[in-house]
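Q: Could you fold this chain for me?
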Amino acid sequence: MTDAAAVTDPRPPPRWRRRPLRNLPPEVAVLSAVAFSVALGFGIVAPAIPLFAKHFGVSNADASAVVSAFALMRLLTAPFAGRLVNRVGERIVMATGIGIVGVSSLLAGFSGSFGQLVVLRGAGGMGSAMFTVSAYSLLLRVVSADQRGRAAGAFQAGFLFGGVTGPAFGGKLASWSLRAPFFIYAATLLLAGTVATVYLARAQLNRREEAAGTDHVPVPFLAALRSTAYRAALINNFATGWAIVGVRSALVPLFVAKVLHERPDWTGYGIFVSSVVQAALLAPVARRVDGSGRRPFLRAGAALGVAGCVVLAYSHSLPPYLFAMALFGAATAMLSTSASAVVGDVIGGRGGTAIAGFQMSADAGQTVGPVVAGSLSDRYSYTTAFLASAGVSAVALVAALLMPETRRKTPPPEPPAGSEDEAEA
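A: Sure. Below is the predicted structure, expressed as C-alpha coordinates.
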Protein backbone atom coordinates (compact mmCIF):
# COMPACT_ATOMS: atom_id res chain seq x y z
CA MET A 1 0.00 0.00 0.00
CA THR A 2 1.37 3.41 -0.96
CA ASP A 3 1.73 6.31 1.45
CA ALA A 4 -0.94 8.24 -0.46
CA ALA A 5 -3.37 5.37 -0.14
CA ALA A 6 -2.64 5.15 3.56
CA VAL A 7 -3.40 8.84 4.07
CA THR A 8 -6.35 9.39 1.74
CA ASP A 9 -9.37 7.14 1.36
CA PRO A 10 -11.47 8.34 -1.60
CA ARG A 11 -14.54 6.48 -0.36
CA PRO A 12 -16.99 8.61 1.68
CA PRO A 13 -17.52 7.51 5.27
CA PRO A 14 -20.52 5.25 5.86
CA ARG A 15 -23.75 7.17 6.15
CA TRP A 16 -24.38 6.02 9.71
CA ARG A 17 -21.05 7.52 10.77
CA ARG A 18 -21.82 10.89 9.19
CA ARG A 19 -25.44 11.04 10.34
CA PRO A 20 -25.68 8.49 13.14
CA LEU A 21 -29.43 8.78 13.78
CA ARG A 22 -30.76 9.57 10.31
CA ASN A 23 -30.80 6.05 8.84
CA LEU A 24 -32.66 4.34 11.65
CA PRO A 25 -36.10 2.91 10.83
CA PRO A 26 -38.90 5.47 11.27
CA GLU A 27 -40.42 3.29 13.98
CA VAL A 28 -37.52 4.34 16.23
CA ALA A 29 -38.53 7.99 15.87
CA VAL A 30 -42.15 7.09 16.65
CA LEU A 31 -41.16 5.11 19.74
CA SER A 32 -38.86 7.92 20.89
CA ALA A 33 -41.70 10.42 20.49
CA VAL A 34 -44.01 8.14 22.47
CA ALA A 35 -41.33 7.81 25.17
CA PHE A 36 -41.05 11.59 25.32
CA SER A 37 -44.82 11.96 25.75
CA VAL A 38 -44.95 9.31 28.47
CA ALA A 39 -42.00 10.80 30.38
CA LEU A 40 -43.33 14.33 29.93
CA GLY A 41 -46.66 13.38 31.46
CA PHE A 42 -45.02 11.44 34.29
CA GLY A 43 -42.76 14.41 35.04
CA ILE A 44 -45.81 16.67 35.17
CA VAL A 45 -47.71 14.46 37.61
CA ALA A 46 -44.77 13.35 39.81
CA PRO A 47 -44.56 16.53 41.95
CA ALA A 48 -48.31 16.39 42.62
CA ILE A 49 -48.58 12.74 43.71
CA PRO A 50 -47.37 13.00 47.34
CA LEU A 51 -49.09 16.38 47.81
CA PHE A 52 -52.37 15.01 46.50
CA ALA A 53 -52.07 12.01 48.80
CA LYS A 54 -51.49 14.30 51.78
CA HIS A 55 -54.65 16.12 50.74
CA PHE A 56 -56.56 13.13 52.21
CA GLY A 57 -54.98 13.64 55.63
CA VAL A 58 -52.57 10.67 55.59
CA SER A 59 -49.06 10.38 57.01
CA ASN A 60 -45.84 10.84 55.06
CA ALA A 61 -45.33 7.09 54.99
CA ASP A 62 -48.80 6.55 53.54
CA ALA A 63 -48.20 9.27 50.96
CA SER A 64 -45.02 7.46 49.90
CA ALA A 65 -47.04 4.27 49.50
CA VAL A 66 -48.73 5.82 46.45
CA VAL A 67 -45.35 5.93 44.69
CA SER A 68 -44.48 2.44 45.94
CA ALA A 69 -47.76 1.01 44.64
CA PHE A 70 -46.89 2.14 41.12
CA ALA A 71 -43.36 0.68 41.27
CA LEU A 72 -44.51 -2.57 42.90
CA MET A 73 -47.14 -3.23 40.26
CA ARG A 74 -44.60 -2.55 37.52
CA LEU A 75 -42.35 -5.17 39.05
CA LEU A 76 -45.06 -7.78 39.60
CA THR A 77 -46.74 -7.49 36.20
CA ALA A 78 -43.63 -7.34 33.99
CA PRO A 79 -43.51 -11.16 33.47
CA PHE A 80 -47.17 -11.13 32.46
CA ALA A 81 -46.45 -8.30 30.04
CA GLY A 82 -43.57 -10.25 28.51
CA ARG A 83 -45.70 -13.33 27.89
CA LEU A 84 -48.46 -11.16 26.47
CA VAL A 85 -46.01 -9.56 24.02
CA ASN A 86 -44.97 -13.01 22.77
CA ARG A 87 -48.60 -14.04 22.38
CA VAL A 88 -50.39 -11.04 20.82
CA GLY A 89 -47.58 -8.75 19.67
CA GLU A 90 -45.91 -5.56 20.79
CA ARG A 91 -48.23 -3.03 19.18
CA ILE A 92 -51.41 -4.23 20.91
CA VAL A 93 -49.72 -4.56 24.30
CA MET A 94 -48.17 -1.11 23.98
CA ALA A 95 -51.41 0.63 23.07
CA THR A 96 -53.27 -1.24 25.81
CA GLY A 97 -50.63 -0.39 28.41
CA ILE A 98 -50.61 3.29 27.52
CA GLY A 99 -54.40 3.28 27.59
CA ILE A 100 -54.45 1.72 31.07
CA VAL A 101 -52.04 4.32 32.44
CA GLY A 102 -53.98 7.11 30.75
CA VAL A 103 -57.41 6.07 31.97
CA SER A 104 -56.17 5.26 35.48
CA SER A 105 -54.48 8.67 35.68
CA LEU A 106 -57.66 10.40 34.54
CA LEU A 107 -59.68 8.57 37.19
CA ALA A 108 -56.97 9.24 39.80
CA GLY A 109 -57.56 12.94 39.25
CA PHE A 110 -61.16 12.37 40.36
CA SER A 111 -60.19 10.26 43.40
CA GLY A 112 -62.43 10.85 46.38
CA SER A 113 -60.36 8.87 48.89
CA PHE A 114 -56.80 7.81 49.57
CA GLY A 115 -57.66 4.16 48.89
CA GLN A 116 -58.95 4.99 45.42
CA LEU A 117 -55.75 6.88 44.65
CA VAL A 118 -53.56 3.94 45.69
CA VAL A 119 -55.56 1.43 43.64
CA LEU A 120 -55.57 3.62 40.54
CA ARG A 121 -51.83 4.34 40.75
CA GLY A 122 -51.25 0.60 41.12
CA ALA A 123 -53.25 0.02 37.95
CA GLY A 124 -51.08 2.65 36.28
CA GLY A 125 -47.99 0.67 37.27
CA MET A 126 -49.40 -2.40 35.53
CA GLY A 127 -49.99 -0.40 32.35
CA SER A 128 -46.53 1.14 32.62
CA ALA A 129 -44.93 -2.32 32.69
CA MET A 130 -46.89 -3.31 29.59
CA PHE A 131 -45.74 -0.19 27.77
CA THR A 132 -42.07 -0.46 28.73
CA VAL A 133 -41.68 -4.16 27.91
CA SER A 134 -43.54 -3.91 24.60
CA ALA A 135 -41.76 -0.72 23.53
CA TYR A 136 -38.30 -2.19 24.15
CA SER A 137 -39.28 -5.43 22.47
CA LEU A 138 -40.55 -3.54 19.44
CA LEU A 139 -37.49 -1.30 19.34
CA LEU A 140 -35.12 -4.27 19.21
CA ARG A 141 -37.34 -6.05 16.71
CA VAL A 142 -37.23 -3.43 13.95
CA VAL A 143 -33.51 -2.55 14.00
CA SER A 144 -30.58 -4.55 12.73
CA ALA A 145 -27.69 -5.64 14.93
CA ASP A 146 -25.52 -2.64 14.00
CA GLN A 147 -28.30 -0.19 14.93
CA ARG A 148 -29.22 -1.41 18.41
CA GLY A 149 -27.02 1.00 20.35
CA ARG A 150 -28.23 4.05 18.45
CA ALA A 151 -31.85 2.94 18.65
CA ALA A 152 -31.57 2.48 22.42
CA GLY A 153 -29.88 5.89 22.68
CA ALA A 154 -32.68 7.61 20.76
CA PHE A 155 -35.32 5.90 22.90
CA GLN A 156 -33.52 6.89 26.11
CA ALA A 157 -33.20 10.45 24.82
CA GLY A 158 -36.98 10.62 24.47
CA PHE A 159 -37.41 9.57 28.10
CA LEU A 160 -34.66 11.93 29.23
CA PHE A 161 -35.96 15.07 27.56
CA GLY A 162 -39.53 14.33 28.60
CA GLY A 163 -38.44 13.67 32.17
CA VAL A 164 -36.50 16.95 32.32
CA THR A 165 -39.28 19.03 30.76
CA GLY A 166 -42.21 17.61 32.72
CA PRO A 167 -41.38 18.76 36.27
CA ALA A 168 -40.96 22.35 35.08
CA PHE A 169 -44.66 22.39 34.22
CA GLY A 170 -45.77 19.96 36.92
CA GLY A 171 -44.75 22.17 39.82
CA LYS A 172 -46.69 25.15 38.48
CA LEU A 173 -49.75 23.03 37.72
CA ALA A 174 -49.66 21.49 41.20
CA SER A 175 -49.55 24.94 42.79
CA TRP A 176 -52.69 25.82 40.83
CA SER A 177 -54.56 22.52 41.27
CA LEU A 178 -53.47 19.16 42.67
CA ARG A 179 -55.83 17.35 40.30
CA ALA A 180 -54.88 19.13 37.07
CA PRO A 181 -51.54 17.30 36.54
CA PHE A 182 -53.37 13.95 36.46
CA PHE A 183 -55.63 15.21 33.68
CA ILE A 184 -52.69 16.55 31.66
CA TYR A 185 -50.84 13.25 32.16
CA ALA A 186 -53.86 11.36 30.87
CA ALA A 187 -54.05 13.60 27.81
CA THR A 188 -50.37 13.11 26.91
CA LEU A 189 -50.68 9.35 27.34
CA LEU A 190 -53.80 9.02 25.22
CA LEU A 191 -52.11 11.09 22.52
CA ALA A 192 -49.06 8.81 22.69
CA GLY A 193 -51.25 5.72 22.49
CA THR A 194 -53.02 7.05 19.41
CA VAL A 195 -49.70 7.81 17.70
CA ALA A 196 -48.39 4.33 18.50
CA THR A 197 -51.53 2.62 17.22
CA VAL A 198 -51.70 4.58 13.97
CA TYR A 199 -48.04 4.60 12.94
CA LEU A 200 -46.89 1.18 14.12
CA ALA A 201 -48.95 -0.95 11.75
CA ARG A 202 -48.35 -4.71 11.86
CA ALA A 203 -47.55 -5.06 8.14
CA GLN A 204 -44.85 -2.41 8.36
CA LEU A 205 -43.38 -4.08 11.43
CA ASN A 206 -43.18 -7.40 9.64
CA ARG A 207 -41.30 -5.78 6.77
CA ARG A 208 -38.91 -4.08 9.17
CA GLU A 209 -38.34 -7.34 10.99
CA GLU A 210 -37.51 -9.12 7.75
CA ALA A 211 -35.16 -6.35 6.62
CA ALA A 212 -33.38 -6.29 9.99
CA GLY A 213 -32.88 -10.05 10.02
CA THR A 214 -34.60 -10.42 13.39
CA ASP A 215 -35.34 -13.92 14.61
CA HIS A 216 -39.03 -14.76 14.23
CA VAL A 217 -39.11 -17.09 17.25
CA PRO A 218 -38.93 -15.19 20.58
CA VAL A 219 -36.16 -16.21 22.98
CA PRO A 220 -37.62 -17.04 26.43
CA PHE A 221 -36.17 -15.63 29.63
CA LEU A 222 -34.65 -18.89 30.91
CA ALA A 223 -32.89 -19.48 27.59
CA ALA A 224 -31.46 -15.96 27.63
CA LEU A 225 -30.41 -16.39 31.26
CA ARG A 226 -27.93 -19.07 30.21
CA SER A 227 -25.92 -16.35 28.48
CA THR A 228 -23.10 -14.75 30.49
CA ALA A 229 -23.62 -11.51 28.58
CA TYR A 230 -27.34 -11.41 29.36
CA ARG A 231 -26.64 -11.99 33.05
CA ALA A 232 -24.12 -9.14 32.98
CA ALA A 233 -26.74 -6.88 31.42
CA LEU A 234 -29.24 -7.84 34.14
CA ILE A 235 -26.76 -7.16 36.94
CA ASN A 236 -25.76 -3.81 35.47
CA ASN A 237 -29.39 -2.82 35.01
CA PHE A 238 -30.06 -3.76 38.64
CA ALA A 239 -27.08 -1.65 39.75
CA THR A 240 -28.33 1.27 37.64
CA GLY A 241 -31.75 1.03 39.26
CA TRP A 242 -30.20 0.78 42.72
CA ALA A 243 -27.41 3.35 42.73
CA ILE A 244 -27.95 5.76 39.87
CA VAL A 245 -31.75 5.99 39.79
CA GLY A 246 -33.10 4.82 43.15
CA VAL A 247 -30.51 6.14 45.61
CA ARG A 248 -30.03 9.35 43.63
CA SER A 249 -33.76 10.05 43.77
CA ALA A 250 -34.46 8.95 47.34
CA LEU A 251 -31.29 9.64 49.33
CA VAL A 252 -29.52 12.50 47.55
CA PRO A 253 -32.21 15.11 48.44
CA LEU A 254 -31.77 14.23 52.13
CA PHE A 255 -27.97 14.23 51.75
CA VAL A 256 -28.01 17.71 50.25
CA ALA A 257 -30.10 19.05 53.12
CA LYS A 258 -28.56 17.24 56.10
CA VAL A 259 -24.89 16.80 55.14
CA LEU A 260 -24.17 19.59 52.68
CA HIS A 261 -26.61 21.92 54.48
CA GLU A 262 -27.76 23.40 51.20
CA ARG A 263 -31.15 24.48 49.90
CA PRO A 264 -33.36 21.89 48.14
CA ASP A 265 -32.68 23.80 44.91
CA TRP A 266 -29.27 22.16 44.76
CA THR A 267 -30.88 18.74 44.45
CA GLY A 268 -32.52 19.97 41.27
CA TYR A 269 -29.27 21.52 40.06
CA GLY A 270 -27.47 18.24 40.60
CA ILE A 271 -30.08 16.28 38.67
CA PHE A 272 -29.90 18.92 35.94
CA VAL A 273 -26.11 18.48 35.67
CA SER A 274 -26.58 14.72 35.47
CA SER A 275 -29.21 15.07 32.75
CA VAL A 276 -27.09 17.48 30.68
CA VAL A 277 -24.10 15.14 30.75
CA GLN A 278 -26.28 12.18 29.86
CA ALA A 279 -27.92 14.07 26.98
CA ALA A 280 -24.55 15.22 25.64
CA LEU A 281 -23.10 11.69 25.66
CA LEU A 282 -26.07 9.62 24.49
CA ALA A 283 -25.59 10.06 20.72
CA PRO A 284 -21.79 9.68 20.54
CA VAL A 285 -21.79 6.76 22.97
CA ALA A 286 -24.61 5.02 21.10
CA ARG A 287 -22.69 5.44 17.85
CA ARG A 288 -19.56 3.92 19.37
CA VAL A 289 -21.54 1.07 20.93
CA ASP A 290 -22.62 0.08 17.42
CA GLY A 291 -19.23 0.74 15.89
CA SER A 292 -16.79 -0.56 18.51
CA GLY A 293 -18.77 -3.01 20.63
CA ARG A 294 -20.97 -3.25 23.68
CA ARG A 295 -18.55 -4.55 26.29
CA PRO A 296 -16.17 -1.55 26.56
CA PHE A 297 -19.02 0.83 27.33
CA LEU A 298 -20.75 -1.54 29.72
CA ARG A 299 -17.47 -1.75 31.62
CA ALA A 300 -16.88 2.01 31.48
CA GLY A 301 -20.43 2.76 32.61
CA ALA A 302 -20.15 0.39 35.58
CA ALA A 303 -16.79 1.91 36.54
CA LEU A 304 -18.25 5.42 36.39
CA GLY A 305 -21.14 4.23 38.56
CA VAL A 306 -18.66 3.03 41.19
CA ALA A 307 -16.72 6.30 40.96
CA GLY A 308 -19.88 8.40 41.29
CA CYS A 309 -20.94 6.60 44.47
CA VAL A 310 -17.46 6.86 46.01
CA VAL A 311 -17.14 10.58 45.22
CA LEU A 312 -20.60 11.18 46.66
CA ALA A 313 -19.72 9.23 49.80
CA TYR A 314 -16.86 11.61 50.58
CA SER A 315 -18.48 14.83 49.38
CA HIS A 316 -18.66 17.61 51.94
CA SER A 317 -19.23 20.52 49.59
CA LEU A 318 -21.01 21.36 46.37
CA PRO A 319 -18.20 20.84 43.79
CA PRO A 320 -17.62 17.11 44.49
CA TYR A 321 -21.36 16.59 44.78
CA LEU A 322 -21.95 18.10 41.34
CA PHE A 323 -19.02 16.09 39.97
CA ALA A 324 -20.61 12.90 41.29
CA MET A 325 -23.88 13.83 39.59
CA ALA A 326 -21.98 14.33 36.32
CA LEU A 327 -20.41 10.88 36.71
CA PHE A 328 -23.87 9.39 37.19
CA GLY A 329 -25.03 11.07 33.99
CA ALA A 330 -22.10 9.66 32.02
CA ALA A 331 -22.63 6.22 33.54
CA THR A 332 -26.32 6.22 32.63
CA ALA A 333 -25.58 7.19 29.01
CA MET A 334 -23.15 4.29 28.65
CA LEU A 335 -25.10 1.65 30.56
CA SER A 336 -28.51 2.35 29.04
CA THR A 337 -27.28 2.00 25.46
CA SER A 338 -24.78 -0.83 25.86
CA ALA A 339 -26.92 -3.04 28.13
CA SER A 340 -29.94 -2.74 25.83
CA ALA A 341 -27.79 -3.61 22.83
CA VAL A 342 -26.39 -6.66 24.66
CA VAL A 343 -29.92 -7.91 25.34
CA GLY A 344 -30.85 -7.40 21.69
CA ASP A 345 -27.77 -9.31 20.59
CA VAL A 346 -28.50 -12.24 22.90
CA ILE A 347 -32.15 -12.64 21.95
CA GLY A 348 -31.69 -11.79 18.28
CA GLY A 349 -34.18 -8.95 18.50
CA ARG A 350 -37.23 -10.91 19.72
CA GLY A 351 -38.07 -11.95 23.24
CA GLY A 352 -40.86 -10.46 25.34
CA THR A 353 -40.10 -12.38 28.54
CA ALA A 354 -36.35 -11.83 28.21
CA ILE A 355 -36.92 -8.09 27.87
CA ALA A 356 -39.36 -8.23 30.78
CA GLY A 357 -36.65 -9.81 32.91
CA PHE A 358 -34.25 -7.06 31.87
CA GLN A 359 -36.76 -4.38 32.85
CA MET A 360 -37.55 -6.13 36.13
CA SER A 361 -33.89 -6.02 37.13
CA ALA A 362 -33.95 -2.20 37.05
CA ASP A 363 -37.28 -2.05 38.87
CA ALA A 364 -35.94 -4.40 41.54
CA GLY A 365 -32.90 -2.18 41.99
CA GLN A 366 -35.08 0.91 42.32
CA THR A 367 -37.26 -0.89 44.87
CA VAL A 368 -34.53 -2.41 47.05
CA GLY A 369 -31.78 0.21 46.73
CA PRO A 370 -33.46 3.18 48.41
CA VAL A 371 -34.75 1.01 51.27
CA VAL A 372 -31.36 -0.56 52.03
CA ALA A 373 -29.39 2.65 51.52
CA GLY A 374 -31.89 4.58 53.62
CA SER A 375 -31.59 2.06 56.44
CA LEU A 376 -27.79 2.22 56.29
CA SER A 377 -27.85 6.01 56.42
CA ASP A 378 -30.14 5.92 59.47
CA ARG A 379 -28.11 3.32 61.34
CA TYR A 380 -24.59 4.32 60.29
CA SER A 381 -24.02 7.24 57.92
CA TYR A 382 -24.60 8.54 54.42
CA THR A 383 -21.01 7.58 53.63
CA THR A 384 -21.79 3.96 54.46
CA ALA A 385 -24.95 4.04 52.34
CA PHE A 386 -23.17 5.43 49.29
CA LEU A 387 -20.23 3.03 49.67
CA ALA A 388 -22.67 0.11 49.81
CA SER A 389 -24.15 1.39 46.55
CA ALA A 390 -20.62 1.55 45.14
CA GLY A 391 -20.25 -2.10 46.12
CA VAL A 392 -23.34 -3.03 44.10
CA SER A 393 -21.93 -1.18 41.09
CA ALA A 394 -18.59 -2.95 41.63
CA VAL A 395 -20.32 -6.33 41.34
CA ALA A 396 -21.83 -5.12 38.08
CA LEU A 397 -18.37 -4.08 36.89
CA VAL A 398 -17.01 -7.56 37.60
CA ALA A 399 -19.87 -9.07 35.61
CA ALA A 400 -19.06 -6.75 32.69
CA LEU A 401 -15.38 -7.69 32.87
CA LEU A 402 -16.20 -11.40 32.63
CA MET A 403 -18.73 -11.23 29.78
CA PRO A 404 -17.89 -11.86 26.12
CA GLU A 405 -18.45 -9.29 23.39
CA THR A 406 -21.85 -9.82 21.77
CA ARG A 407 -21.58 -7.50 18.78
CA ARG A 408 -21.07 -9.49 15.61
CA LYS A 409 -18.39 -7.96 13.46
CA THR A 410 -19.46 -7.22 9.92
CA PRO A 411 -17.14 -8.98 7.48
CA PRO A 412 -15.10 -6.59 5.29
CA PRO A 413 -16.36 -6.13 1.72
CA GLU A 414 -14.74 -8.29 -0.92
CA PRO A 415 -12.26 -6.40 -3.13
CA PRO A 416 -13.39 -5.76 -6.70
CA ALA A 417 -12.15 -8.00 -9.47
CA GLY A 418 -8.65 -7.15 -10.65
CA SER A 419 -7.62 -5.38 -7.46
CA GLU A 420 -4.12 -5.50 -6.05
CA ASP A 421 -5.28 -7.83 -3.27
CA GLU A 422 -6.46 -10.42 -5.78
CA ALA A 423 -3.30 -10.05 -7.81
CA GLU A 424 -1.16 -10.72 -4.74
CA ALA A 425 -3.33 -13.72 -3.86
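A (continued): The chain has two domains: 25-214, 219-407.
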